[in-house]
Specification:
five-stranded antiparallel sheet, five-stranded mixed sheet, mainly beta
Length: 388
Amino acid sequence: MKPGWVSQGLNGEVYAEPLVYHGIVVIATEMDVVYGLNLTSGAMIWSSPLGTPVNGSTLQCGDINPTGITGTPVIDPVTGTVYVVAFESPGAHYLVAIDIHTGRVEFKVPADPPGADPLVQQERGALSLGNGRVYVMYGGLAGDCGDYHGWVVGLNEDGSPGMVSYEVPTQREAGIWAPSGAAMDASGNLFVATGNGASTSTFDFSNAVIELSPTLQELGYFAPSDWVQLNQGDTDLGSVGPMLLGHGEIFQIGKEGVGYLLNASNLGGVGGELFASHVCSSAFGGMAFAGSVAFVSCTDGLFALNTTSSLFSLLWKGPGFPAGPPIVTGDIVWVVDTSNGWLHGFEAKTGTEVFSAQTGPVTRFTTPSTATGWVIVAAGNKVYAFHL
């Protein structure tokens, strides 16, 4: 592995994961600009300004300023279309479709949930594509201000009218905000995880994993038995998105650091997990899965868990840095130390470190990407590419 290229400074910070398609690296910034860079050289192929981002000082709370595109886009590999959600001044979210080869905007449609206040809703979760729709997740701003709710909306991928939506049935909060977004099964059903809600007595779908149909009808749910205590302690189960495993099960973990194995066909309701065990201090962002191993990003390191039917156990633990969401390529798991911007590569089976390089300051949930022969990391307003 050796350094490949560093991009020129882009016009804003990058929170979204870079995406790669047919030799083009797609980068979205908080200035509401999407870039297409050449995979092998980093040269800019196109840039597409979508609008004026929202000045963070005009919002009740939050920790991103300015705030434009935060959630990771999604690419339709059949049509070569990039879908992003841009937050634009004075305060509205739009789903934008972009031709990946030219950067041309194909359409731009409103994406805010029906009746929601866009100024207290944040779109941080990665977008999902399936069932002819682009699915968009919403939570609140850092600080939990305002009357926000967890939402999922589905918009037609051709830009035609016909939004479907799901609102978490809580009095307030229960945001769906994990950067990894929703998980989608082979039937097109979605699994999302929620954060804290307002209830202290009646279950309100806060701190839960919820299964939704392609039209966003609730099909089932799971919540830990201590969901009330999680509410009271701001200990979101939904700080990480659900992860589908290869044997009909789901792995979920959150701020409490307790991992849960769930039956994907029957989530089990309150206290209905198949297995639960403490894993780490606290988990955030996203996870990866390869073979039978789940890789979990925690504030005290990267944890590799060996999973079997209805059971998991520790395989290895990496150094104790705050780990961003990992990815796996071949036999290597890649993860960023979000405290100092170092990219690390570990052998997936043993945890032996085989690569490290510094990129500079990164955003909190920085996630690397890979393409044939390359590992790519966004750091601040630049993109770093390393050549395998």
